[in-house]
Amino acid sequence: MESLSQMSSSGAAKPEIVQLPDWLRRPIGRASELSTVQKIIKQRQIHTICEEGRCPNRSECYANKTASFLLMGPTCTRSCGFCQVDKGHAPMPLDPEEPQKVAESIQLLGLTYVVLTSVARDDLPDQGAGWFVATMDAIRAVNPETQIELLTPDFWGGANPEEKQRERLAMIVAAQPACFNHNVETVERLQDPVRRGAKYRRSLEVLRYVKELDATMPTKSGLMLGHGETEEELVETMRDLRAVKCDRITLGQYMRPSLAHLPVQRYWTPDEFEHLGEIARDLGFSQVRSGPLVRSSYHAGEDG
Question: Which uninterrupted H or E stretch holds 288?
């Protein structure tokens, strides 16, 4: 499925087809849980990152009454090399009924913990920060007991981007999500090919500023392994996250969505993920999820 370079007799790089490791194969789960969620979101013309990103854990999360909703349409204004979400053309206008539709879906599914994420919407005046807040308000109006985690873009853009970014983050923090999540995605050296349009230090500043605004709010970030990073670089990244008081971390294996996306450079083994998880715990992260199939919202509503 993924390719590694192998030298041919002519000296040219020749792609080698590498079989997906057994530990990255898992059953699809109970069809009833998948179909119920898919039916409800299709009827309301809303989106989940579980479906758009083809998350391997979606049936498990649905069974545990959690899901991750993708706000502001399925089209991103950025073009990251790893992401399954659609990009490359103009994003859709915002659906004014989306916050209410998401709230109704959560109520129908009986979800106790939800993650709200979004595509990057650099075309919007506030980069979509107000839409997160509006959706949180709609959810709380009908599901007051449901916990809401946010997984946001960096909200960077427009005139005076640093000042505006801080205003947008202040709006988010004032809405009091259960957890604020912003992913650095990969180590600093690999940011440009992996995260087009985003910056490593800018992402660290996002997490730092949220803690500055509210020291009690849990913050979280995630890394995808397999882009060519080293263990030393991963540990350095974890140290950088702890330096901005990031509380929680997810570590998972990058899996190439299509041939148009970045190839996998390495499959990290379950034992290696366990080792990295131990390092993260030793560094002081209060919640660590580390494994090949771990994603940003995996077991998000659980402590420890």
Answer: strand 287-290
Q: Which residues are annotated as a binding site for [4Fe-4S] cluster?
A: 50, 55, 61, 76, 80, 83, 297
- 197-213 per-residue burial string, b: 16 or more CB within 10 A, e: under 16: bbebebbbbbbbbbbee
Say what the pLDDT of residue 109 is: 86
Burial class from Cβ neighbours inside 10 Å (0-12, 13-18, 19+) for residue 304 reads exposed
Q: Residue for token digits 């004032």?
A: 174
At 19, the amino acid letter reads: Q
For residue 150, the number of C-alpha atoms closer than 13 Å in the C-beta half-sphere is 29
Secondary structure string (H, E, C) spanning 157-181: CCCCHHHHHHHHHHHHHHCCCCEEE
Residue 199 amino acid letter: K
Which distant-in-sequence residues (6+ apart) come within 8 Å of 80 by Cβ? 185, 194, 195, 196, 197, 198
* Side-chain-facing half-sphere of 33: CA atoms under 13 Å: 17
- Strand, helix or coil at 107? helix
Q: Which residues are annotated as a binding site?
A: 50, 55, 61, 76, 80, 83, 297
- Predicted confidence band of residue 174 (pLDDT cuts 50, 70, 90): very high
pTM of the model: 0.83
Q: How far, rounded to the nearest angstrom, does the alpha carbon of residue 247 sit from its chain's CA centroid?
A: 16
Residues belonging to the chain: 304
| Residue of 133, 139, 116 whose CA lies nearest to 175 | 133
Residue 230 has phi, psi (to 5 degrees) of -105, 165
